[in-house]
Amino acid sequence: MFQSYGLFPHLTVGENVAYGLKLRKIPPDEIERKVHETLDMVGLSHLYDRPPGQLSGGQQQRVALARSLIVEPSVLLLDEPLSNLDALLREQMRVEIRRIQKSLGITAVYVTHDRVEAMSLSDRVIVMRDGEIKQIGSPQEIYEDPNSTFVAGFVGKVAFFPAEGLEKRDAQWVCRVGSKSLLVGRAAPDVAEGQDAVIMARPESLRLTESGQGAVEGTVRMNVYLGSSIETFVDTPHGEVLIQVDDPASKKIFAEGAPVSVDFNPGRIRLLRDS
Questions:
Q1: What is the pLDDT of residues 117-144, one digit of tens each?
Q2: Contact at 8 Å (CB) between 272 and 188?
Q3: Tell me: the pLDDT tens digits for 242-263?
Q4: Which one of 163, 188, 202, 274 has the fewest CB atoms closer than 10 angstroms to its CB?
Q5: What is the pLDDT of residue 2?
């Protein structure tokens, strides 16, 4: 089915891309030159005379991008531009949009509900909820140092564990998780002694050990093989926890149904206010 992406189906690819320049009364020879340059940039020069209805979804999206770029905007707004594409095309177009944006040096505002798009395309991320800004930062800051459980869950897979006996000691926090006492060096600004807090742990910041040797006891519910890693889902008293096991050939993989302990990489966890 033809997805318009704002394109005119009765015009060719070249005519669609030229449309904005024609409205600006640019000389025809200048329009022709810029259209070919812009289509070259998005890899579609060979489709100059093709009607949009005969293009794939990814090609249609690139035509729409070319039509926006050819007028040399000071800011490019992209509002959920990949929502109608399948998974493979979305991945290809993410790379293509990032490449074009970098090569042109243009400021782009990209609106999306897809965390992978937000993290892979952005220099700065603004996380919003109900029209209110919750946090602004680089993709790494938002992922590694979220300031709330909402932001932590929005930008990536995460598990939360209750932090008991919370106490501040110099630049570190001391707390208990399960049977284990932990030193946590990173905390959100609103974390305070005497208040409820949780430890935020990403799948790669957790590890599995033999039962009785870690902080939280559990049972392996399922292993999902992903090639370069295995995702292990563990049932614990605090709910289901996801552990990412990188390079599984070099590590012990616990069988489904096996009793295990979940332990922490202290340098990768963060305290958040429980709210």
A1: 899 889 999 999 999 999 999 999 999 9
A2: yes
A3: 999 998 888 889 999 999 999 9
A4: 274
A5: 44
In SS3 terms, 186-210 reads as CECCCCCCCCCEEEEECHHHEEEEE
pLDDT computed for residue 1 by the predictor: 37
Entry field: residues in the chain: 275
> pTM score, two decimals?
0.81
Q: How far apart are CA 177 and CA 163, in angstroms?
A: 6
Q: Which tokens is 205 given?
A: 């910041």
Contacts for 99 with CB less than 8 Å, ≥ 6 apart = none
Q: Which residues pair with 259 in a beta bridge?
A: 219
What does the radius of gyration of the chain's CA atoms come to, in whole angstroms?
Answer: 25
Residue with tokens 């399948």: 86
pLDDT under 50 in the chain at which residues? 1-2
Give the Cβ contact number of residue 169 at 10 Å: 8
HSE-up (13 A, CA, CB side) for residue 27: 3
Task: In whole angstroms, give the CA distance from residue 199 to residue 273.
Answer: 9
Q: Helices 57-69 and 13-23 meet at what angle, rounded to 10?
A: 20
Q: What is the pLDDT of residue 4?
A: 61
Contacts of the segment 110-119: beta carbons below 8 A, 24+ positions apart: 110/78, 110/81, 111/77, 111/78, 111/79, 111/80, 112/80, 112/82, 113/80, 114/82, 114/90, 115/154, 115/155, 115/156, 117/82, 117/90, 118/155, 119/143, 119/155, 119/156
